[in-house]
Fold this sequence. Notes:
This protein is mostly helical. The protein contains three helices and no strands. The radius of gyration is 17 Å and the shape is elongated.
Amino acid sequence: xxxxxxxxxxxxxxxxxxxxxxxxxxxxxxxEKIKNGINRAENGEVSSxxxxxxxxxxxxxx
Length: 62
């Protein structure tokens, strides 16, 4: 498994030379959220499609 520091360095190396600190922060944030989602799914912490529809209905009704 690649260490977090090395993974971050590799990600930064692949960004364009003119990227900003904000670009780097955004990419780190997205990678973290994706990894968290994968881990939650692997641990069975998921919602059914019906649960998701019900939650969205509450949000959209406001």
